[in-house]
From TrEMBL, chain A:
UniProt name for this protein: Xanthine dehydrogenase family protein subunit M
Stretches assigned to the FAD-binding PCMH-type domain: 1-212
Keywords (A to Z) from UniProt: Oxidoreductase
Domain of life the protein comes from: Bacteria
InterPro entries: CO_DH_flav_C, CO_DH_flav_C_dom_sf, Diverse_Substr_Oxidored, FAD-bd_PCMH, FAD-bd_PCMH-like_sf, FAD-bd_PCMH_sub1, FAD-bd_PCMH_sub2, Mopterin_DH_FAD-bd
UniProtKB/TrEMBL annotation, chain B:
Pfam families (UniProt xref): Fer2, Fer2_2
InterPro entries for this protein: 2Fe-2S-bd, 2Fe-2S-bd_dom_sf, 2Fe-2S_ferredoxin-like_sf, 2Fe-2S_ferredoxin-type, 2Fe2S_fd_BS, Aldehyde_Oxdr_Iron-Sulfur, Beta-grasp_dom_sf
Keyword Cell membrane carried by entry: no
Organism: Prauserella alba
Keyword vocabulary terms for this entry: Iron, Metal-binding, Oxidoreductase
Record PROSITE patterns: 2FE2S_FER_1 (PS00197), 2FE2S_FER_2 (PS51085)
Domain 2Fe-2S ferredoxin-type: 1-76
Name of this protein: (2Fe-2S)-binding protein
Amino acid sequence: MRPFELTVPATVDEAVAGGHTFLAGGTTLVDLMKLDVVAPQRVADITALPFHGISTEDGLRIGALERMSDVAAHPGVPAAVTRALLLSASQQLRNMATIGGNLMQRTRCGYFRDITMPCNKRRPGSGCAALEGNNRMHAVLGTSRHCVATHASDLAVALVALDAELRITGPDGGRTVPLTDFYRTPGERPDIENDLGSGDLVTEIVIPYPELAANSTYVKIRDRQSYEFALCSVAAALDVRDGVVAEARIAAGGVGTIPWRLPGVEAALRGEPATEAAFTAAAEIATHGTTPLAHNGFKVPLLKRTLVRALLELTGGDER
Amino acid sequence: MDIALQINGTTEHLDVSPGVTLLDALRERLGITGPKKGCDRGQCGACTVHIGGRTALSCLTLAATVRQPITTVEGLSTHDQLHPVQRAFADQDALQCGFCTPGQIMSAVAATAQGIDDPDEVREFMSGNLCRCSAYPNIVAAVRSAGSEERRTDATV
């Protein structure tokens, strides 16, 4: 690890003014610093700042410094979010990681973590080792010729599906950004992953209409039963009335360079009967625009099947 | 940086550079070698300790950021009396080489405190602690047996 200066800002103004790299639970940042993948000179431990608490008044509001385990245990949190959290990482990591930090974790792959390999995200212009390398875990949606890494957060997939918003504070004041507009696909600049500027800090996560999530779930498919990233995951919320889909919210993880909302699938489901045949037809739309690599073509049919399974689970039709 | 750590009921004052992990501070500076350095990447769980009563990975925690009391495996037993979870690991033969055991035990203490008993839930809870010797079935048995022992003891109080 390279030497750095560590401060503990007592106020938000102090934190956002300094050009710091922010440290909360540290589960990603400390790891990447130890690997020399990142080497910030000034680090601010923000855990003393007042971004705590979970409130169910006026939507669901969660302070960015709440721990993953505490959010998962809160009764006011929708099922899709709770499941996404409990299927993430290990219990130790869930005790450490904050939900703000979870959303800010780096989009990454094994080549990003290995400083002996080329990586456009770590060293812009050096190339992408995954394109011709081992790319079984990589993305099939939102990729570019510069980067194909997946966004690893399960929580973000559930929050993107549920129209969550981020409250952000920074040197120029506060703003609110829908999570669907927050993440950036790699394009020409895989080193830029989101909408935050220097000094900007996520302070709160808001689900404005949690009633949409009353009937919601998160299905995660992975190589191991526990403590593993998603090969594919789907967050879904469904409002079914008289056997017909009135409203749907769907996003996929493990397949995209960002948490991947699927508005085309949602539109195809609205007004259709809540049957496996209708779900299967709508799921076909999820695969539009997929660009598989040498080793991850299996994710395309897996995405369809995961989506259908999530929808069947929400309609009581999944007996598997 | 001058820091003060509360470890197993004792306050320790240290001068550390900001990049020193809690694991290195414990092992290299304070001689508390229960927490083990397995992967040093937050993947194996051998360095698991409790911070503020919750499990945490000491290899991914910077010592200078810790403000709550720390418990390591050394802090579990009282005098020569093993903690029920330690006793259960011995009784159930829940180890072979023993390198992962202090971390396993710190997670197991948290599991029993939360009343986790269903085998699938025990396996899920313990999945952040890898055992290279693959003593997993006996580890699950130890967690369940320690939990039922604690519940039995509670019921007789």
